[in-house]
Amino acid sequence: xxxxxxxxxxxxxxxxxxxxxxxxxxxxxxxxxxxxxxxxxxxxxxxxxxxxxxxxxxxxxxxxxxxxxxxxxxxxxxxxxxxxxxxxxxxxxxxxxxxxxxxxxxxxxxxxxxxxxxxxxxxxxxxxxxxxxxxxxxxxxxxxxxxxxxxxxxxxxxxxxxxxxxxxxxxxxxxxxxx
Length: 179
Ligand SMILES: [Zn+2]
Known about the structure:
Blueprint: H1 2-12, E1 26-34, E2 45-52, H2 67-74, H3 90-97, H4 101-115, E3 123-127, E4 133-139, H5 143-161, H6 168-176
Helix pairs in contact: 4-5, 5-6
Bound molecules: zinc ion.
Residues 83-84, 91, 103, 107 line the site of zinc ion.
């Protein structure tokens, strides 16, 4: 049994760069929360995404080559995200030191909405009872735009991991269609 487990782990690791396969990162579900909720006292329109990091649970941002440089390069305006540091560049500092991909998805989903003209700004990411699984919660102004921002945040993360240009302008053009 032990042997089988480590064999499966080996199979899920991408042999080229020692990182897990991107398919390990999965959206379990996305729904919306309206009205009074346990996540925010003031925000009552929230997107709730359950994200399974799979093997990526063992790879916070500081363990992913070029991730910090890529997110700064392709999403420079995220320097405004203060995160828990409470200061400019606070979020980038967290990425540099190492934070998990669920937390990063939350911030990217918020930034995609900001760049589309909707400065939303509330987000929380907490692990569920299952290891590697996260509740990613953030607010929205336009429901469909919020849901699509959640999905897009994951494809942006995958591009950043793979050193690919996530083509943010094209994503924003798509999101603006929901205005
Ligand atoms: Zn944060």
